[in-house]
Amino acid sequence: MKILNWLAMVLTLGVIGMSYGLYRLEPTLLIGTPWGSVHVAYLLAGEFAAGIGVMGLFLLASWWEFQRTARRRAGELRKLRSEIEALRRAHPEEVVRIPDRPEVQ
């Protein structure tokens, strides 16, 4: 997990550095958008942020699905345990008594 955290930090710092470098080295690198002329560095940083947001939504959906599955399996396990206990109470097993040994209680 530490490797993934470091990789995410390095990737983020790389995008920030690349955006800043692009903005400083090519200040006239503008692209026309419906909102006016925007520097490519801002678009790059915005796309990266949007990608992180979408990834966060996917992670949230996966976590939610995992929690739902875990609750469902825990419920099934509780149900099976209660059925086993009911069967044990309904059918007690006889303890085999060996005649030459004393009873242990």
From TrEMBL:
Domain of life: Bacteria
TM region positions: 40-64
Sorted UniProt keywords: Membrane, Transmembrane, Transmembrane helix
Name by which UniProt lists this protein: Lipopolysaccharide assembly protein A domain-containing protein
Gene source species: Allomeiothermus silvanus (strain ATCC 700542 / DSM 9946 / NBRC 106475 / NCIMB 13440 / VI-R2) (Thermus silvanus)
